[in-house]
Amino acid sequence: MGRYSLPAGAFLGNLNGGILDGTLASRVGPDGKLYVASELTNGILRYDARTGRYLDTFASGIGFSHPTGIAFAKGAVLVGNFEKSTVSKFDSKGRFLGPLVGSQEYALDGPDVGMVVGPDGVLYVPSFNNGAVLKFDPGSGRFLGYFLSPGGIAQPRTILFRKKLVWISSDSGNQVLRYKMNGSFVDTFIQPGSNGLKGASGMAFGGDGFLYVSSWHNNKVLRYKESDGSPAGALIETGLSGPTFLTVVR
């Protein structure tokens, strides 16, 4: 997993230490540490968010089934497991507290990297395989309905919230779509294939007026104007292998 500077895109090195295989979501936790999902070793590792130095393994083994997404809520760490379509709950010490969402409950099918707790305190879970986005209470796991019903979007991956809108990357759609908080469609913010986008997966606002999107089918990170979605070249064009998630560390 590589580290790059903004806005130049200079390579700063890889995460240093720990055994990662199949890295997916990476998020800075409430403790200031970088949590990284290692899908193929069934665990969550922690790193120094600024230096990339390995700190420890937060949790591994029990409670994992190809972890993809990470979210934080009310002193807990929530993990989306792609293989069995579950969401697991851990306490802040890494102890497994049990499933928050059971296997394929409410048609959850492939919880993906963009699982996140929104500004409304609701857990949003992208369901990659059937094109849905589900909502849950992050404390109890109570189902709160569909943000997007099955078939509503092609292969949803990352979910962002900004300017009272919800931004969702569509992998096979090669685009980024925007919605109101009630789930009603607003617009296609990044048009299919714009700027060479192929496999829209990770997204992050850089704080520099640009939205960055990982184009994992051609191993690039592309840049778009936050104001109107117009293409603004690439942040990274070489040296990547299947980039699926982006995290900006400030």
UniProtKB/TrEMBL annotation:
InterPro entries: 6-blade_b-propeller_TolB-like, Vgb. CDD domains: NHL. Keywords: Lipoprotein. It comes from the Bacteria. Signal peptide: none annotated. This is Putative lipoprotein.
